[in-house]
Design goal:
Order of helices and strands: EHEHEEHEHEHEEHEHE
Strand content: 15-25%
Number of helices: 7
Largest sheet: 10 strands, mixed
Number of strands: 10
Length: 247
């Protein structure tokens, strides 16, 4: 079965904390052979729509939404989901327009806007997927805890670069079957493999200094039952300028 390469979490300069302009993102990911990218700027769809206009690959319109209880990602959106609602209300608003609800980096202890454990438990019924590998998560134990929680809940697992700069592009992605639409995307994720490495924390420091507000081994996870969940591949020796290669 042929697989395509998909980054499920990526930002552009339409996010205030990102230095990655749409043109650079499109050029880099086209050269690296990506077939699809989820653009998930903070509280706006403008970046995703801009990338979709110029990209030769499939663009999933998304948004990383600041609910009053922490961040949630909506994918396959038709319109902006307003910030500031309860997490459950945010999830319902995503589903009402046919979108998918993803919990990004839920156990990353250094994220100020992550959803706390109690809220995460209460909204688990609304989640379509959980981001178990984020290249910007500093501690392996936080990713490992997310994997365990997602398996306990029987949720689809995903991973992404969370790129905010050109140097972070391609740090994490999912090898998965081709898809068309939200339902097939979710089904393909179940058959996928997450590939990635952590980004350097120095990148985030440089961005903070510029904006005003890594190559290390990938998390190892024992393969689950066939077709049930994505697994990880070590991409720590990848030459970033050349782009990741499919197996």
């Amino acid at each position: 079965m042929a697989l395509i390469r998909v980054d499920t979490h990526c930002h552009t300069t339409f996010s205030q904390d990102s230095a990655l302009d749409p043109e650079t993102l499109v050029a880099r990911y086209a050269r690296m052979g990506f077939a699809a990218v989820c653009i998930t700027d903070h509280n706006t769809l403008e970046g995703a729509l801009a990338v979709r206009e110029m990209a030769p690959f499939q663009v999933i319109v998304g948004e990383e939404i600041d609910s009053s209880e922490g961040e949630l990602i909506g994918l396959f959106l038709q319109e902006v989901v307003p910030a500031g609602m309860l997490a459950s209300e945010t999830a319902k608003a995503i589903h009402e327009q046919g979108g998918l609800v993803v919990a990004p980096h839920p156990f990353d202890r250094f994220r100020r806007r992550r959803i706390d454990g109690a809220t995460l438990q209460s909204i688990a019924v609304y989640l379509d997927a959980v981001e178990v590998f984020n290249s910007r998560t500093l501690l392996w134990s936080d990713n490992e805890r997310t994997v365990s929680w997602a398996r306990e809940k029987g949720l689809v697992m995903t991973g992404g670069s969370d790129a905010h700069s050109a140097g972070e592009l391609g740090a994490a992605y999912v090898d998965m079957p081709a898809f068309s639409g939200a339902s097939e995307f979710l089904s393909s994720l179940r058959q996928g493999m997450i590939v990635g490495r952590r980004s350097s924390p120095l990148t985030r420091l440089r961005l903070r200094r510029r904006k005003g507000p890594p190559a290390s081994p990938v998390l190892k996870v024992e393969p689950p039952p066939v077709g049930a969940r994505p697994v990880y591949r070590d991409d720590s020796n990848h030459n970033r300028s050349a782009g990741p290669a499919l197996p």
